[in-house]
Design a protein that fits this description.
Distance between the termini: 17 Å
Strand content: under 5%
Low-confidence stretches: none
Number of strands: 2
Shape: globular
CATH topology: Farnesyl Diphosphate Synthase
Structural class: mainly alpha
Order of helices and strands: HHHHEEHHHHHHHHHHH
Mean pLDDT: 92
Number of domains: 1
Helix content: over 70%
Amino acid sequence: MQAFLSRLKTGQAHIEAALQTALRPHLPELLWEAMAYSALDGGKRIRPVLMQLTTEALGADPDLATPAACALELIHCYSLVHDDLPALDNDDWRRGRPSNHRQFGEATAILAGDALLTYAFELCTAPGPLSAEVRIVVAHEIARAAGPHGMCGGQMLDMQLDPRAPLGPDTLAHMYALKTGQLLRVAVRCGAIIGGATPAQLQALTTYAEQLGVAFQIIDDILDLTGTLDSLGKTPQKDVHQQKYTYPQVYGLAPAQEMGRACVKAALTALHEATLPAPEWLEAIAHYLTERQA
């Protein structure tokens, strides 16, 4: 695990440097300041690093994925800015400091989120070493994962869940597969596409990512229940206070933990079936994401 942590740190630093370059100040200065505030210095960069590791696992240069990886991270950051707004999750803290709307006001936070989302597609479609065809496919994958078929659709389902009503079969899994799982899924799929995966490899890696996404969400739910502001960097037990459905709340803590372990096992089985040239880092990140404490 120590070797992986070193590789993760290298990947995080690479993404951080690329984001700093992309978010150099321009006019209007306040908008760029607010964008940088939520996109720099604090994120774990899991999604962009996962994309690069997938490209690397296929034997390709991971730097080929950097523009798309940065684009995906900006979309993730925009979603956090908007999630924290009073109309949605109403959270005053993010990554251990005041959330964007607390720092800059609601109007600027909304615009900063909008700008991060649209700027993401400027980055991933810009001319570069990838062919125009691959850039279009990647942009389409990311757009679908972020929009009504993915993250935004999942957020809407989350808002509509009534904690007083019985939960239908598979409702929780479907909601989280869209809200959280799609951005992890697309990180792997785009990394695979950039790396030149065969159709069979792409399908196996998609299954890996989907199972990893479920495990990731289960751990998030558990940490929200057991973590602290210092360890999480955001308000703990928000799900409890807002009476939201979560895996521990629906299934119990111990069964949820067992579900998480089963998902990791399924993810690693799919990864093995992909028969990649260098799958070691993808195996390591699966353990890292599901054994984390923050």
